[in-house]
Amino acid sequence: MNKDVTAKGPGRVGQVKEITSLSNPVIKDIKGLSQKKGREETGTFMAEGLKLVIDALDLGWSITTLVYAKNAKEKPLVQKVAARAVAAGALVLEVSEKVLSSITRRDNPQMVVGIFETRWHALSSLKPETNQTFVALDRVRDPGNLGTIIRTADAAGASGVILVGETTDPYSLETVRATMGSVFAVPLYRASASEFLKWKRGSGAKTVATHLAGSVDYRTIDYTDMPVVILMGNEQQGLPEELAREADALARIPQQGLADSLNLAVATAVMLFEARRHLLALN
Ligand code: SAM
User: Cα 209 to chain center, whole Å?
Assistant: First the structure.
């Protein structure tokens, strides 16, 4: 069944498609986005929740499909977001809760899901400025860690996250969930280790690499004289020698107790808030 939705904007009227069948090909395509292959082939990803979808639209992200639960169709904010999606030229689907559950693989799904185009920024054109802080992650594996780090980078006022080497996908459902919407706010870059090192040498940024064998207490570093890239190691293996030896400082977070290291996302948060604290103290 097709219904007219009057979109806000220059007199545009678009259509909402109602779908109740799990075997509908459009639904199958959307479910394909839970696989990396599906995201890479379409250049799109899924974000759940009304607030996230509104934030993404406000930040200018390109929406290709909006899906909402039939039982939420009377809610004014859902109607408004549907009209915005129609105005943006997106496909708008009104579906049963069963369909939403199967798309999001959740028993209690959010009432709105947006499909957006993925966005990567070119590291080669990144020219960091003195008051900026970036995080670079070497081969981050865990989607929850990556999502938490993107969220933390956003909250700490970092200017971007650089993914170095083979990493988990920031646009997977699990990572996007863990970012709590910050995936739309933090620019993402990706590079091989050699591309990262080449960029770093010409960037004018100070690379502070964190290392369990680091010689410098992270609190004694000057984070204000140059733009800073905080480089974090892989969850299992830590930072490889080829990256560690080119760092401008090898920082250690002093620990007590039995734990031999901090969780990657926790260590990143400690580093980021320290670096940003130094800069905020200047203002
Ligand atoms: N077994 C790994 C190793 O030997 O490096 C542990 C890696 S740790 C779980 C993941 C990353 O978090 C490290 O590579 C480092 O970047 C950072 N990290 C964790 N605890 C740290 C600490 N106390 N000081 C500095 N960096 C730390």
Answer: 22
